[in-house]
Amino acid sequence: FEDQLASEKKCGHLGGKVLVPTQTFIRTLNAARLAADVSGVNTILMARTDAHSATLITSDIDERDADWISGERTPEGFFKLKQGNVHSVGHAIARGLSYAPYADLLWWETSEPDLGEAREFADEIHRHFPGKLLAYNCSPSFNWRAKLDETKIASFQEQLAEMGYRFQFVTLAGFHALNLSMFELASAYRDRGMGGYSELQQREFAAQDHGFTAVRHQREVGTSYFDAVAMAISAGQSSTTAMAGSTETEQFLKTTEPETA
Description:
4-stranded mixed sheet; 10 helices; 4-stranded parallel sheet; single chain; TIM Barrel; alpha/beta
């Protein structure tokens, strides 16, 4: 859960973010915990704050937010946050301390990969809540090589872990990997036709030595499982199972899974 106003929700690395009052978000966390408890479901509640770079808040009702509000209003009626506090870790810390009793994991969205800020947040949270689990978004919205050299990038996550950031992730890593891969494949296909695609296929075969399993796409998405279900239902008499007689079985097993003596 996060403390942005849902109707104005933005990616954490865009402008125009609007926070809800601290007390409003605490109610959200309490409601989530209640729902999990009533359902009897073991749940890890993550509280995310965008206070580090948000510029607006819906209301000045909560005294805990008073120090961060400028008093100016927008045409929509939102309160502006003090400009000197935007991109200040202090506001994120204040929010994190307020949310810590109600959440299992704290995530503060950052504006750049800054280990100094990460340590400042972690130290202050742990001073009041020792051992509190923390999360960090190693975001693709950062230009990593522009901010850090290769050595610092290589040790970045290890240093975060030492500070107590137990959940580290790259949001949209799949988006970037998929789009770059498809761009490269489309370029190769344009230039070399099926030769370009077969090169991709050969890289898939080679990757199997390192644990890659998606060369056989029918098997990967569960076709063999549903064959097994069909056989169970029909007492082994089904004549419509899919993998038997498939090109995947006939062409890929010998190519991708050599028989061992």
